[in-house]
Structure formats: C-alpha cells, structure tokens
C-alpha cells in the first residue's frame, strides 16, 4: 500500500471501510434500473436517477417552457435567465449582478478588503477557512493518483482514467442512437440525445446543470467549485500558466496543454464524419455538428428575434447590442469592446501589427484565423459559395453578397424630399439633410476651426490631422491609415484585387458599394444633387462640393509641396505637381519650379 492510500485510509472512518474497499476495487454495485448505468455508491445512483430520469417536474417556466422539480429551482432559473435588470451593484467597482450571491462571490474573489486565508502551496487567498480547506482538497490533496500520459489530467480512480482515454484520446463511441445512427461515448449522453432531439424535450440537458450558472456568460456547471474556478480564471483574470512558445497565459494547466497541442503542434484529433473538417477540441466538433449540420439555433433573443446556437452567444448579444455595454476600452485608440478577448485581439492585430496565421500557399499573413481560411477558400480554391438570387452574381463572402443586394437590388425606404437620395436607415437620412441641405456644421475643431457636420468626423479629423495618428498599417506594403475602414478598403482593392460591384451599363468595377452607387448616380443618371450656396454650381459628389467651396470661395490651399513649398487646394493636384515637376521625388528642389 503506497503513501496515498495510507493518507486516504486516515481520512475514512472504520464505518466507511466497506465503501472504501468498493472504490479501490472498482466494483459498481448500484445499477440504475432505467438505463443500467452502474455506480460505486448508492448516493451517486440516486442523484443520477433524480437528475436524468425524474419526470416529476411540475413547475414550468412561462417564458421558455423549461420544467423544474422544485419551485425554488424555477425561481432561480427565471432570475438568472429572464431577468433583464441587475439590481445588485458592487460598491467597489460598480459592476452589477442579477443575483446577490453572484455579487458576494465577485467581492470575495476580486476585492481584498477582508481577512485572508492564504494557501501555502499556491499563495491563493480565500475569505474563510472552509473555502481554503475546500481548495486544498480539490487542487492539492494527492487523491487523484491516476495520470493520463497524453494530457496530464488526473483522475481519482482507474475506471475514470480508462473512460477518459477511450472517449477523448481514442474517440471511441460505443452507444449508437437507433433513430439517427449518431454515436456517443456515454450512455447518459445517448439518453439525453434521445430525449432532447427525438422526443423534443429540450429542458433535460439544461436541468442537469441548472443550479450553478455564471452571471457573466451563462455557462453552466455541475457544482459550485467548478463555477468558482470558472469565474476566477475566465472573468477575474487569474492566469497562472504561461505558454513558453508565445507567452500567452491561461487559467489552468489543462487549457495551456490544449493550447500548445492545438495551436503550436497544430493537432486536430477530432474529425467531422460529414464534411471531414477537423478540430482540436471535442467540444468544438460537437458545436460544429449542432450548428452547421443540424442547423440548430435554440436560443432566441426576445427583443429582436435573432437566434443563436449557444446560450453564451445570446447573453453576449443582449449585453453588447441591447444594453449597449462595452466595458473594455483600448488605451491606445479608445475603441470599446464587449469582451476582454476582443480587446486583446484588437490590440495584438492593430497596435502590435501581429499576423500569426500564415497561408502555406502564398505566405500571406492574417491576424484572424477565419480570415486565413476565407482567403484560402476564395483565392486559392476559387470558391464563391454565395450566389445572388436576383442576378446570378456569386460572391466569396456572405457579407459581400449582403452589401451587393443592399446596393443593387434592395430598395431604400428613407427618401430625401429635396434631392430624392435614398437611404437604408432613418438616421442616415437625417444626417444627410442636416449636413448637405441645411449646411449645418455644428462641430468645430478647437485647433484649426474647421467645422464638421458630424461629431464622428471631427474626432477622426483631430486624430489623423492634428495628432498625426495612423494606427492601422497594411501588412503588405506598410502603408499607414488613420481609419480602419480605409485600411480594409485599401487591402481589398489594391492587394486582393477585389472589385465585386460591376456596373451593368459600362462594365466599370468598384471595390465598395458606396463608390458603385455614386458612379451610377452621377455618370448614368446624370444627377448633381450638391449645390454650392455661393455660386449655385452643382456637383455630383459631396466631396467635390466641399473641395470647391474650400479652394474657390475660401481661397484655402492646405497642401504644400515639401520640395518647393508651392501650395495647392487639394492633394490630387499636389501629387500631379510632384510627379510632373519633381518626377515623383520630394527629396530635392527643381529649378524650373517657381515658389509661391
């Protein structure tokens, strides 16, 4: 008998010696009479039968038809899932919670104005002795003696280790559904599948985890310790395990090992049997099956009827779209994000200029993995999976098809009564009328006194002109841009050669819908909707009107040649001057150029 078993025997009393013998010998004497699953102790079998097979659920939610065995469970469900407002605010950081218990948990984990009980092994602190003891029992007591050599995960008994190796690493699924031939690694999963998919009872799986729900992301856990670990690692930022390849940090060792296995070793052990796509995690494969092949989106937003495949995605949508919460601000460009992960990704790509995903066919690099996959699909495979049902034109991106339909085929319901220009949204019409026809420039730059019709335009002007900031760099030619949309437009048109909007009258191709609409309006319809209020000259584009007013009526020449100091009213004429007089160079003076 080794030291671990000696330690185990010291904890267990003589009265429980028989149970101890059963656990060590892996005998499972208690068998569920419904599904024949075996358990080592009677309490485990009873809990299994009550949660999986119990159908006496008399308390039904009037909003989602979930059923519960106890009234208290129904109340907890309604508070956590359907209550839209959060009444419990933290007096330290003003973060709000739906449940008081979640507030208390947050204060205990985050704010340290309390007596601390520190763990001597990992220096983690707790608010009371019982939680410290629970932590030691879960994380540091050597009661999990069976180590998986493939992923370093530990188990309390040999049977659990065997099940883990068989299902996770070998991918064996011994339980087959006789209705749809789908396979499962455990009989309980097969039973849940039968009840939820074929019997239509969608509340069975959720009720197994209904007692421990994370307020921030809606993820569900079997026990409180799992919920607390999740909050600490995911939402409160504890990440003690760093990857020695890329220095990325993780909240648990298993997450670190999974990251190294899937990202740096690029292992994809879980293959889809329908489309041959491979995944690094089994959970990602299951999500792929549900959302792509079964097309299931079971979570519907009660405010806009948009549907989601996962509850966490619905909660994130509610928080960021309908509540307008974006709690994470970039300290470099002040852009706000709904999650910390999106903020980190933004900073990595746009401010650190990191491109970690390289194409193995052309060595082009991307900041996002989905952009790499999209690039490979559309450029190297030539796939255009999104055809327009009105003109048979095909697109490689769903977003491009949407923009094409909106620009070419769909009507715009908001029409300007002065120039008949159409808009898809009412606030765009109001902005147009205010700035173009009323000539209002309510936002004045305090540095150069230039006036703008929109506050957003003023902020962009100040950032790019006066602060000289060009935070967005092209990874192909290193050209810099002050606005992210201009960078994307540049990459799409210049480097990808994408001009997806083709005029059916003159075959001109445009890179974006706005240029396409301007072309049709000014060239083929002959419209000149922008009138100068000084000389009544008409223009087809607003930019040309502004340029005319600035150079002709105000006499402004803001663009100076840095070689000969000659000034011009617009940048185009400056470039023409430099190309013609200085032969495209601006590092020496030309004697033929007269200073003005």
UniProtKB/TrEMBL annotation:
<feature type="domain" description="C2H2-type">
    <location>
        <begin position="270"/>
        <end position="298"/>
    </location>
</feature>
<feature type="domain" description="C2H2-type">
    <location>
        <begin position="386"/>
        <end position="414"/>
    </location>
</feature>
<keyword id="KW-0539">Nucleus</keyword>
<protein>
    <recommendedName>
        <fullName>C2H2-type domain-containing protein</fullName>
    </recommendedName>
</protein>
<feature type="domain" description="C2H2-type">
    <location>
        <begin position="175"/>
        <end position="203"/>
    </location>
</feature>
<dbReference type="Pfam" id="PF00096">
    <property type="entry name" value="zf-C2H2"/>
</dbReference>
<feature type="domain" description="C2H2-type">
    <location>
        <begin position="559"/>
        <end position="587"/>
    </location>
</feature>
<feature type="domain" description="C2H2-type">
    <location>
        <begin position="88"/>
        <end position="116"/>
    </location>
</feature>
<feature type="domain" description="C2H2-type">
    <location>
        <begin position="146"/>
        <end position="174"/>
    </location>
</feature>
<feature type="domain" description="C2H2-type">
    <location>
        <begin position="30"/>
        <end position="58"/>
    </location>
</feature>
<keyword id="KW-0677">Repeat</keyword>
<feature type="domain" description="C2H2-type">
    <location>
        <begin position="241"/>
        <end position="269"/>
    </location>
</feature>
<feature type="domain" description="C2H2-type">
    <location>
        <begin position="299"/>
        <end position="327"/>
    </location>
</feature>
<dbReference type="InterPro" id="IPR013087">
    <property type="entry name" value="Znf_C2H2_type"/>
</dbReference>
<dbReference type="InterPro" id="IPR050826">
    <property type="entry name" value="Krueppel_C2H2_ZnFinger"/>
</dbReference>
<keyword id="KW-0863">Zinc-finger</keyword>
<keyword id="KW-0479">Metal-binding</keyword>
<dbReference type="InterPro" id="IPR036236">
    <property type="entry name" value="Znf_C2H2_sf"/>
</dbReference>
<feature type="domain" description="C2H2-type">
    <location>
        <begin position="472"/>
        <end position="500"/>
    </location>
</feature>
<feature type="domain" description="C2H2-type">
    <location>
        <begin position="530"/>
        <end position="558"/>
    </location>
</feature>
<feature type="domain" description="C2H2-type">
    <location>
        <begin position="59"/>
        <end position="87"/>
    </location>
</feature>
<feature type="domain" description="C2H2-type">
    <location>
        <begin position="357"/>
        <end position="385"/>
    </location>
</feature>
<feature type="domain" description="C2H2-type">
    <location>
        <begin position="501"/>
        <end position="529"/>
    </location>
</feature>
<dbReference type="GO" id="GO:0008270">
    <property type="term" value="F:zinc ion binding"/>
</dbReference>
<feature type="domain" description="C2H2-type">
    <location>
        <begin position="414"/>
        <end position="442"/>
    </location>
</feature>
<feature type="domain" description="C2H2-type">
    <location>
        <begin position="117"/>
        <end position="145"/>
    </location>
</feature>
<feature type="domain" description="C2H2-type">
    <location>
        <begin position="443"/>
        <end position="471"/>
    </location>
</feature>
<feature type="domain" description="C2H2-type">
    <location>
        <begin position="212"/>
        <end position="240"/>
    </location>
</feature>
<feature type="domain" description="C2H2-type">
    <location>
        <begin position="328"/>
        <end position="356"/>
    </location>
</feature>
<keyword id="KW-0862">Zinc</keyword>
């Amino acid at each position: 008998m080794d030291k671990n078993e000696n330690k185990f025997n010291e904890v267990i009393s003589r009265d429980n010696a028989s149970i101890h013998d059963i656990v060590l010998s892996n005998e499972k004497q208690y068998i569920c009479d419904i599904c024949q699953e075996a358990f080592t102790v009677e309490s485990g079998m009873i809990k299994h039968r009550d949660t999986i097979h119990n159908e006496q659920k008399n308390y039904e939610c009037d909003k989602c038809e979930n059923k519960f065995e106890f009234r208290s469970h129904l109340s907890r469900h309604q508070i956590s899932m359907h209550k839209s407002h959060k009444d419990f605010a933290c007096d330290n950081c003003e973060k709000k919670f739906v449940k008081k218990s979640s507030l208390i948990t947050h204060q205990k984990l985050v704010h340290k104005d309390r007596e601390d009980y520190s763990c001597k092994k990992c220096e983690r602190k707790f608010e009371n002795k019982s939680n410290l003891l629970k932590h030691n029992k879960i994380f540091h007591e050597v009661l999990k003696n069976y180590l998986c050599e493939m992923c370093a995960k530990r188990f309390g008994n040999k049977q659990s280790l065997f099940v883990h190796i068989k299902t996770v690493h070998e991918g064996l699924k011994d339980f087959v559904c006789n209705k749809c031939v789908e396979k499962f690694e455990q009989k309980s999963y097969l039973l849940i599948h039968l009840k939820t998919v074929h019997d239509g009872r969608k509340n069975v799986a959720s009720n197994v985890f209904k007692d421990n729900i994370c307020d921030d992301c809606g993820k569900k856990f079997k026990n409180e310790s799992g919920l607390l670990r999740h909050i600490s690692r995911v939402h409160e930022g504890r990440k003690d395990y760093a990857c020695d390849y890329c220095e990325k940090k993780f909240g648990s060792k298993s997450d670190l090992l999974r990251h190294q296995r899937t990202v740096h070793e690029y292992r994809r052990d879980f293959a889809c049997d329908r489309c041959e796509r491979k995944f690094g995690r089994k959970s990602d494969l299951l999500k792929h099956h549900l959302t792509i092949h079964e097309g299931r989106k079971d979570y519907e937003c009660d405010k806009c009827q948009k549907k989601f495949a996962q509850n966490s995605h619905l909660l994130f949508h509610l928080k960021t779209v309908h509540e307008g919460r974006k709690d994470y601000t970039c300290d470099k460009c002040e852009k706000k994000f709904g999650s910390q992960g999106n903020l980190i990704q933004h900073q990595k790509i746009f401010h650190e200029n990191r491109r970690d995903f390289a194409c193995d066919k052309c060595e082009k690099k991307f900041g996002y993995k989905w952009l790499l996959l999209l690039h490979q699909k559309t450029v190297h495979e030539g796939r255009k999976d999104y055809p327009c049902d009105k003109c048979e034109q095909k697109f490689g991106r769903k977003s491009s098809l949407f923009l094409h339909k909106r620009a070419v085929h769909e009507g715009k319901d908001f029409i300007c009564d002065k120039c008949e220009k159409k808009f898809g949204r009412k606030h765009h019409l109001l902005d147009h009328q205010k700035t173009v026809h009323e000539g209002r420039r309510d936002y004045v730059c305090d540095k150069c006194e230039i006036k703008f019709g929109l506050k957003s335009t003023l902020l962009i002007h100040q950032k790019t002109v006066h602060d000289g900031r060009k935070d967005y760099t092209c990874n192909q030619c290193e050209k810099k841009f002050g606005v992210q949309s201009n960078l994307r437009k540049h990459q799409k048109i210049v480097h990808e050669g994408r001009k997806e909007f083709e005029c059916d009258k003159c075959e001109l191709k445009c890179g974006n819908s706005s240029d396409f609409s301007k072309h049709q309006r000014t060239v083929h319809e002959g419209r000149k909707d922008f009138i100068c209020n000084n000389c009544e000259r008409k223009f087809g584009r607003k930019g040309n009107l502004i340029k005319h007013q600035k150079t002709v009526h105000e006499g402004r020449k803001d663009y100076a040649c840095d070689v000969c100091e000659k000034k011009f009213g617009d940048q185009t004429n400056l470039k023409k001057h430099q190309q013609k007089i200085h032969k495209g160079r601006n590092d020496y003076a030309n004697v033929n150029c007269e200073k003005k």
